[in-house]
Amino acid sequence: MAEKLKRVAVIGGGYAGLAAAVTLAQQNIPVTLFEAGKTLGGRARGVAYRGISMDNGQHILLGAYRETLRLMALTGVSRDAVQRLPLALTIPGHFELRTPALPAPLHLVFGLLLAQGLPLGERLAAIRFAVALRLRNFRLAQDMSVASLLARYRQDGKIGRLLWEPLCLAALNTPIAQASAQVFLNVLRDSFSRARSDSDVVLPRTDLTSLFPLAAAEFIGKHDGKVVTGCRVRSIEPDEENFKLGWEGGSETFSHVICATAPQHALPLLASLPYTAPAARMLTDFTYQPIASVYLQYPHDTRLPGPMLGLTGGFSQWVFDRGYTHGTPGLLGVVISAEGEHQDWPAEQLAGKIHEELQQRFSLPSPLWHKVIVERRATFACSVGLERPTQSCGPNNFYLAGDYTAGDYPATIEGAVRSGVKCAELITRNGQR
């Protein structure tokens, strides 16, 4: 019997949907991607303000983000689009860890041994912690909170506050008292235990839409696919062995569907598909964490000691000097991960507080302007034992993609990309013909 032609619809133009569509396009499988907004990138997208390109949230990549970096290369993204630096975590006046040019994991061991700002006993305990995790292959017999894990290994002192907690918040966007230790260990495993370059910090030099989504859309178009923006898919209806997608003013039938929206947007689309009920129940139980990004434009001669610095003792967690990376001198971007009293403050109050914290540390002048972006549902809360739906949640022609689906990673760009690639591979291997 002749194979039925595959026509794949991808709903959602974030990194997960684009990764799926690029992978399918590479296999010359006809694909149409629908994005409700006018800008590609989803929760990692560019934002224009006062003629300056910013992002809806500060995101960095790691050298361990191999799928993301691979797809960027595949779609023609220049190596100059990112700045790759050996891992250096600096909280001015408090803590500094730099990894020497040694193979993994020796680079971390010696980095911890020579870290500044920590008592020798805590540095040695951190090395024992790293060795113990490696001997366990970074696996826990039972998941627990990151706070409990740190307490168990005596990492809840100064080193917990200055190193492990900031890393957990940056990776999982979930407070350590509820964050999954196993997911955190997955990130540490991939970043520190394989190749030294895996722990590299990879800083975008352009906004997040220009970094990969625009190149991905061009790649899809060159391989006879389509990217449709400003089109919100409102329904998915089974149509014999296919699916009929409906949107305002139109509809179309596809043989396969990858739903790559945010989880809260996926729920209404799953309502007409009975076999997705288990996945829908999981999504109903999800809770979410915010991310606040505060941009402050200072005079152009303002420059920090480095492109990315940690902060402690206030609301600010990381500050990025986009003059180093984006060619916008004097523009500083501050990230506040996870929940807190700040999330309900007016923009003027939050920006004023962040400037106060920066001014105390770096003796800055008054900012010329500010822009506050708060993503209230930036990520799912990556809590202990959270059950996440698999990519394949029904017949062999319907899939879920997104950083929230089952996988080793938390809600990161790499987690999103991996899920999209997996959906595409399932279609090419197992999809309905």
TrEMBL record:
InterPro entries: Amino_oxidase, FAD/NAD-bd_sf, SQase_HpnE, Zeta_carotene_desat/Oxidored. Coiled coil: none annotated. GO terms for molecular function: oxidoreductase activity. It comes from the Bacteria. Residues 16-427 form the Amine oxidase domain. Gene3D superfamilies: FAD/NAD(P)-binding domain. It holds the Pfam family Amino_oxidase. This is Amine oxidoreductase. It comes from Sulfurimicrobium lacus.
